[in-house]
Structure formats: structure tokens, C-alpha cells
UniProtKB/TrEMBL annotation:
GO MF: calcium ion binding
Main subcellular location: secreted
Keywords for this protein: Disulfide bond, EGF-like domain, Glycoprotein, Repeat, Secreted, Signal, Sushi
Cellular compartments annotated: Secreted
Designated name of the protein: Sushi domain-containing protein
Domain of life: Eukaryota
Domain named Sushi: residues: 5-61
SMART domains: CCP, EGF, EGF_CA
Organism, as annotated: Ridgeia piscesae (Tubeworm)
Length: 254
């Protein structure tokens, strides 16, 4: 009896062979696990030198994200032998279908970190201030409030949490200076009495700290003229000096 020449079966990482024994002339088929693809010949033969030759196939990882993003709705990450779907900030993987993403309602947890009002939206949320006299702290120095040196304003719990905190609105200081100038001019003529009355009223409208000077010149001119007229009345006197001529003269009276 001659023993058959056997070929030792190759070890294929992440793969397997179709037989548990191979003798001279046998063909075996190599298959890969899910998530891997074969590199090389699928079928190998047992040769007289009791090997399957030098070109033993191997199983290589399949990059599922390379095509159609692995079926992930948002982000696909390839792993060795598999892949993972993940979601952008503001979304989470759906518990029903792990390739899909659903919105996170941030307002459900600690009111989204908002001081006052929290509005959820698809992929995000928004804080706002609904109490009178308050505004949203959107950046350092909002309404004159400064972020302390030891904080960034970007973390929950910061004294002024950007886009979350509400601070009192900047107080507008109104300061107006009004100046009224009244000028009265009396013009009298002839020794008559003259009286002038002058009144000024100024109004300032200021925005924030601003000094606005309002000058109003009120010119009152009172002219009172007294005219004394002297009228000379003239009377014509005609006397008959003689019967032959007439003598005419003019006599003026006060
Ligand atoms: Ca949201």
C-alpha cells in the first residue's frame, strides 16, 4: 500500500477552506468571512510537492464606506471586517435602524443649558430670553458683561455661557443738556416806553450717553414808535386895502 500524498491545508486569516484534507490533485475552495473579500485565486490545487503553490489567496478587509457610504444616512467609518454608522452633532443613531440618524432634543435635558427659553430644531436647538429686560449673551462684552479670565464662556456652568446665558440689557443713560438763549431787543423811538417779553423752550432727545446741546434763539423785537406831528394850519386872510387892488398874505398859526 502506498500512502496518498497529502498537502497541508493553508491557514487563511478570516477565511476557510472547503475540505479538511487534501491529497495530490485535489482542489479546495477558499472562502472569506463576511466583511472580507478574497485576494488571489478562489480555487487552489494540491501539487506533487505537497503544497498548494506559492500563490495562496488571502482575505482582505472590504471598505464598505467606499461605495454608497455603507448605507449610512450620515457618516460611515470603515473597521477591520466591518463598518460603523455614526451621526453628526445634534443627531443620534436611530434605535430602530442603525444606519439612520434622528434629531436629539437637547431641550429635554437641563433645558439645553439655556437660562430661559429653549427651542429644539432638527439637528440643533436655540436659546432665547423671554423675560423683559434680558438679552442673550452672544459674545464677550455683551451688554457690558465680561467673561471672567478663568472661563471661556463655552461650557455649561460658566458665569456667562455664550448663546445660553441671559443678561440684563444694557441700561441706556439719558443725559441731556439744553441751553436756551433769549435775546430781547427793544427799539424805542421818540421817548415812548417799550417792553419786550421773551420766552424760550428747549427739548432734547438723547440716545445712550450723549450730550446734545439745543440752542434756541428767541428774538423778540419790540418797536414802538411815538410820532408827534406838528401841523401848521394856514389861514388865508384877505384884506381889502383899497378898492383898486388886493393885498394877499399868509399868516401861520401854531
Ligand atoms: Ca435638536
Amino acid at each position: 500500500m502506498f500512502s496518498e500524498l497529502e498537502c497541508p491545508l493553508p491557514h487563511i486569516n478570516h477565511g476557510s477552506v472547503s475540505k479538511n484534507k487534501a491529497v495530490l490533485g485535489d482542489d479546495i475552495t477558499v472562502t472569506c468571512e463576511s466583511g472580507y473579500e478574497i485576494s488571489g485565486a478562489t480555487i487552489i490545487e494540491c501539487y506533487p510537492n505537497q503544497t498548494f503553490g506559492e500563490n495562496i489567496p488571502s482575505c482582505q478587509d472590504v471598505n464598505e464606506c467606499a461605495q454608497t457610504t455603507g448605507g449610512c444616512a450620515q457618516t460611515c467609518t470603515n473597521t477591520v471586517g466591518s463598518f460603523l454608522c455614526s451621526c453628526r452633532p445634534g443627531y443620534k443613531v436611530s434605535p430602530i435602524d442603525q444606519t439612520q440618524c434622528v434629531d436629539i432634543n437637547e431641550c429635554d435635558v437641563l433645558n439645553g443649558g439655556c437660562d430661559q427659553k429653549c427651542d429644539n430644531n432638527d439637528g440643533s436647538y436655540r436659546c432665547s430670553c423671554n423675560e423683559a429686560g434680558y438679552v442673550l449673551f452672544t459674545k464677550d462684552h455683551t451688554s457690558n458683561y465680561r467673561i471672567p479670565a478663568e472661563e471661556t464662556g463655552m461650557l455649561p456652568g460658566d458665569r456667562f455661557y455664550i448663546n445660553h446665558s441671559c443678561v440684563r440689557a444694557y441700561q441706556i443713560i439719558r443725559q441731556c443738556v439744553c441751553v436756551c438763549v433769549c435775546v430781547c431787543v427793544c427799539v424805542c423811538a421818540c421817548a415812548c416806553a417799550c417792553a419786550c417779553a421773551c420766552a424760550c423752550a428747549c427739548a432734547c432727545a438723547c440716545v445712550r450717553v450723549r450730550v446734545r446741546v439745543c440752542v434756541r434763539v428767541c428774538l423778540c423785537v419790540c418797536i414802538r414808535a411815538c410820532v408827534r406831528a406838528y401841523v401848521h394850519l394856514c389861514m388865508l386872510h384877505v384884506f381889502v386895502v383899497s378898492t383898486t387892488y388886493y393885498n394877499v398874505f399868509v399868516h401861520c398859526l401854531d
